[in-house]
Amino acid sequence: MPVARKYLVDDSAPGCFNCISRCVRRAFLCGNEAEHRRDWVRDAIRTAAAAFAVVVLAYAVMSNHLHLVVRTDPQRVTEWAADTVTRRWAIAHPRTGADGHPVAWSELNLAARPANAINRHHREDTSGACLRSDPSVSGLTGPKSRAAD
Predict the structure, then answer these.
(1) Average pLDDT over residues 33-61
(2) Quick one: what percent of the chain has pLDDT higher than 70?
(3) Which residues contact 143 (CB under 8 A, 6 or more apart)?
């Protein structure tokens, strides 16, 4: 019987994870006329790495799946100030503009959002299956990676 990751992974200790995400229904992520999606995936990995407390060690974007090897660094987040947490949250959660595209948060918007409200929202948002959503363990660095729960 499968065991939930939250029971297998100690969030207080560093760890390395190989994350795999596959396309469903025999769909293709890249290839033929969808090769431009590789750049989208790379950009998403870099954006996530800038927001969460993980280091991307390696990644591979294949035609119908991707692999990420990441190392978590829970100690690093203990040094983050409230404004650092707020800025990293804003990187991971851009607003959606009227045209449906992401819109960056302004300095005024960020100053109006207290870090404790952002942390509370972040704990409630557990939809990121492969990226850590616990604010105490969030913050990626490195140009090429992703993390696991």
Answers:
(1) 91
(2) 76
(3) 46, 49, 56
Looking only at the bridges linking them, the beta strands covering 16-22 and 102-103 are: unpaired
Rounded Cα distance, 60 and 95, in Å: 28
Tokens for 103?
A: 């819109």
pLDDT tens per residue, range 97-107: 999 998 988 88
Which of 57, 91, 88, 89 minimizes the C-alpha distance to 71? 57
- CB-CB neighbours of 65 under 10 Å: 14
Tokens 């851009």 -> residue: 94
Residue 1 has pLDDT above 70, yes or no: yes
Evaluate whether 17 touches 70 at the Cβ level (below 8 Å).
Answer: yes
